[in-house]
Design goal:
4 strands; binds 2'-deoxyadenosine-5'-diphosphate; binds magnesium ion
């Protein structure tokens, strides 16, 4: 089933020059880039994006981190790509993310726990539709 998902290379990934590495893994898997944008997101956009986490202790630091510099946002299309990219990304916490995944291979726990985990990927069809509308309203 062909799906679309929102993938973001977070500020730590852009700063470390890992955009190409992430795109390479996505394209090598057979997924297709629909559209991309390099931008520094504002807080309002991030508060909408991370609305499900509002009130959690990491919400404010997460919004601050995500607005601290450029991110590379993309809409990625492919067969079951929503679950497929989550699998490429690996577990949320880079310390326990499996080798072979983006977070497991490239995430550095000592930078700051959990938050700097390089990438975001939508977690369901509903999230993907909601997030794509936030980041790429013209799609
Ligand atoms: P994911 O990005 O794997 O979907 P999530 O939606 O649970 O994870 O959380 C969103 C982001 O918030 C996650 O990528 C990193 C940060 N985060 C999650 N849990 C955290 C925690 N316990 N402490 C600090 N940051 C956290
Ligand atoms: Mg999530």
């Amino acid at each position: 089933m062909t799906e679309r998902t929102l993938v973001i290379v977070k500020p730590d990934g852009v700063e470390r020059g890992l955009v190409g590495e992430v795109v390479k893994r996505i394209e090598s898997k057979g997924y297709r880039l629909v559209t991309v944008d390099l931008l520094t997101p504002d807080r309002a956009t991030l508060e909408r994006h991370y609305a499900e986490h509002e009130g959690k202790p990491f919400f404010r630091p997460l919004v601050e981190f995500m607005s601290s510099g450029p991110v590379f946002a993309m809409v990625v299309e492919g067969d079951r790509v929503i679950a497929g990219f989550r699998s490429l990304a690996g577990a949320t916490d880079p310390t326990v993310a499996a080798p072979g995944t983006i977070r497991g291979d490239l995430g550095r726990e000592w930078d700051a726990p959990v938050m700097r985990n390089l990438v975001h990927g939508s977690d369901s069809e509903a999230s993907a539709a909601r997030e794509i509308a936030i980041w790429f309203p013209s799609l």
